[in-house]
Write a structure and sequence with these properties.
eight-stranded mixed beta barrel, 5 helices, alpha+beta
Length: 232
């Protein structure tokens, strides 16, 4: 009987230690179980739309590009095509935040399944290159917590978003803490901008912290850079 009590006490001690360790890791970094799930899901993300070699333009799309004379027109054309063709959960680009030392693959969609793979593009907003507001959401404490330190971004910091047709460099303007229903943050303001959104404060979904960044430069890539080029 005494041995049974001792063994049971040992199990309780180990369980308690594991729970404390899990809580400590979550507080200091991120929730470990969902991080493992995110790593597995990220490896399985469909990345066809990161390369024109993997998802070539159709003949009709190429003919449409050939009719356009400027890089800006070709970027806008490809932005519309990408948005029409990409499916929820597929990778659309790569997001870099140099100040945070963070680089993540962005997927299409902000549903639960998509955000488990990484930051997700709000499908209600356009793709970059159309002079509008592009919005991306990400977790702060779970699923690799891509936006955990979004509050550390400062005015003037660079954010780089690379899609297969162009690379967009944004400069942070400011951030705001808003209610979850504040959809005005995604509205068109007359110029190209990027909006990053995450739950706030940490471990709560009561509010949203939103970072606003204005486009500073656009580097055409692939067929947007060279008229009619297929990038392969």
């Amino acid at each position: 009987m005494r041995r049974l009590v001792r063994d049971f006490s040992l199990v309780l001690m180990i369980s308690g230690a594991l729970l404390l360790a899990d809580a400590a890791v979550t507080l200091l970094w991120q929730e470990p179980l969902t991080a493992v799930i995110a790593l597995i899901k990220r490896d399985g993300v469909d990345k066809r739309f990161l390369s024109y070699c993997r998802a070539p333009l159709s003949g009709l799309e190429l003919r449409g590009l050939q009719a356009l004379k400027t890089e800006q027109q070709r970027i806008a054309y490809l932005a519309r095509q990408e948005r029409k063709e990409v499916k929820t959960g597929q990778a659309i680009g790569v997001l870099q935040m140099p100040r945070l030392g963070a680089t993540y693959t962005v997927v299409q969609g902000t549903d639960d399944a998509s955000l488990q793979k990484g930051p997700g593009h709000y499908p209600e907003t356009p793709f970059p290159g159309l002079g509008d507001t592009v919005a991306i959401a990400g977790h702060r404490t779970t699923y690799l917590a891509p936006f955990r330190n979004i509050n550390q971004l400062r005015p003037g910091d660079r954010i780089v978003l690379t899609l297969r047709y162009a690379q967009f460099t944004y400069k942070v303007q400011y951030d705001r803490v808003v209610q979850p229903t504040a959809w005005w943050v995604t509205h068109n303001v007359g110029y190209e901008r990027l909006v990053l959104s995450a739950c706030n404060p940490l471990y709560s979904a009561a509010q949203r912290i939103v970072t606003f960044a204005r486009v500073q430069s656009v580097l055409p890539l692939g067929p947007s850079a060279v008229r009619g080029h297929t990038a392969c």
